[in-house]
Amino acid sequence: MVPRRALQTVRDALDRQAAVALLGPRQVGKTTLALEIAGQSQALYLDLEAREDRAKLSDASLFLRSYEDRLVILDEIHRAPELFQTLRGLIDQGRRRGRRHGRFLILGSASIDLLRQSGESLAGGSPMWRWVHSMYWKSSRMKRP
């Protein structure tokens, strides 16, 4: 079960931003939270550890453009860091067509390289990216002494 506050935090971020990232260590509830969001909407969920899902992104721009009207969840983004540049382009294109929020929810293991890659590719003049750190879920599950 996903803490209600965590779920609401991500929903609020998606209501304000084109892309929201949940980055953190494994086994803290990122995928569980994303699947709950997907189950409550028409979201497309792609697990980038699955070969068949990665294959769908062989032409990522073309594939993802066909889902512009839906939230796309990209789990295990660290498996395909080259997608960040594509996401930036799609976000920019969508904004010009009035699609300003709730486009992408990405999940991955936090690493210095991933943070550097995403920051270089997605940082820009307009706010389009929101980081929601998954350490919240880990700490919320821990018992107090």
Q: What brief labels describe this structure?
A:
145 residues, Rossmann fold, disordered C terminus
Give an overview in words.
The chain has 145 residues and is α/β, with parallel strands linked by helices. Helices cover 46% and strands 16% of the residues. The chain has one domain (4-141): P-loop containing nucleotide triphosphate hydrolases (Rossmann fold), CATH 3.40.50.300.
Largest sheet: 5 strands, parallel
Order of helices and strands: HEHEHHEHEHEH
Global Rg = 15 Å
Q: Which strand order do you get reading across the main beta sheet?
A: 2-3-4-1-5
Task: Report the principal-axis shape.
Answer: globular
Helix percent reads 40-55%
- What is the CATH first-level class name? Alpha Beta
Structural class computed from helices and strand pairing: alpha/beta
- The CATH architecture is 3-Layer(aba) Sandwich
Low-confidence stretches: 123-129, 134-145
Q: What is the assigned CATH homologous superfamily?
A: P-loop containing nucleotide triphosphate hydrolases
Can you count the beta strands? 5
Strand content bin: 15-25%
The domain count comes to 1
Distance between the termini: 22 Å
Overall pLDDT metric = 78
CATH topology, which one? Rossmann fold
Number of H/I helices: 7
Summarize the SSE layout with pairings.
Blueprint: H1 4-16, E1 19-23, H2 30-39, E2 44-47, H3 51-56, H4 60-65, E3 72-75, H5 83-96, E4 104-108, H6 112-122, E5 129-133, H7 135-141
Parallel strand pairs: 1-4, 1-5, 2-3, 3-4
Structure in a nutshell:
Helices cover 46% and strands 16% of the residues.
